[in-house]
Amino acid sequence: MAFMHHIENDTVAATIGGTILSIIPHLATSDITRTVVLGALGAVVSFVFTQFSKWIWKRIKAKFQMSSNEEQEH
To answer: Which residues cross the membrane (predicted)?
Structure first.
């Protein structure tokens, strides 16, 4: 007969809670601050680069449309 492994929800919650509580004292405030700042900086850089890329793409697209319209007129 095969044994079924069943873990109680209380055991899972206690394991996760114990792991988190054992990690918290080892985190320095500077580590958390650095993580927040780098995350925010990464988000800002990503946003700015996306907006810049869209702006460049619109200019390139408009330039090609303009040149194709001029070719059709001739």
So the answer is: 12-29, 35-57
